[in-house]
Amino acid sequence: MGRAGPSVVGMGLLLSVVAGCSGGGGGGDKGADVEPSTRMHVMSPAPCALLERKPLVDGMTFRAGTDSVRTEPREDASQDDGSVTYRQSSCHETIGTPARGGGLWLLSARADVYERVGPACHRKRVKENLASAQKLDPVAVDGAAYWRNVEEKGMPGRELIMCDGNLLLEVTALAPRGSERGSVDGTLGKLVETAARLMEEGLRDPAAPSSSTMP
Fold it and tell me: What is the pTM of this model?
């Protein structure tokens, strides 16, 4: 795996999403906690539709993703208060074409929707602690999100994991094979941030009261 860079490029967009959902001040200090979001989300039968045909970064659009929805409940045994259930919706390897030409980019996103608020952010913390223990260089954005650099089959990439209410989001973007990380880092950061914003907004439950409380 590649090592994380020294700073978050363009992370203000993601911070504004997290702060807006949580009601926090959105100060943006790396590693700072934010007020836990209580926003509720629902499953999407076509998660790729939330990302496809939209100009995510500099006119780059994505298409031909593979939708995957698991409607049956799955157990998450990582919780301190016992197992809880969640359902999973994902969009795998949508193909991105730069507006000005060039190699293909890949974008994948997975959303785990829990039945209640709380477990998603607990699982995010568990994953972040595990990444730290394995020296995978996670970079904390705040209490609700972290990112790290990855590499897959010669493709440099960026992974972002964030929680919001009952939602855990994992978004990964990969640049064309053989790209120099220094030249694509900024675009990778913007891609995962924008995709996370679109997924979070698209999965919000319009029927859920905004005054949901933490259990």
Answer: 0.81
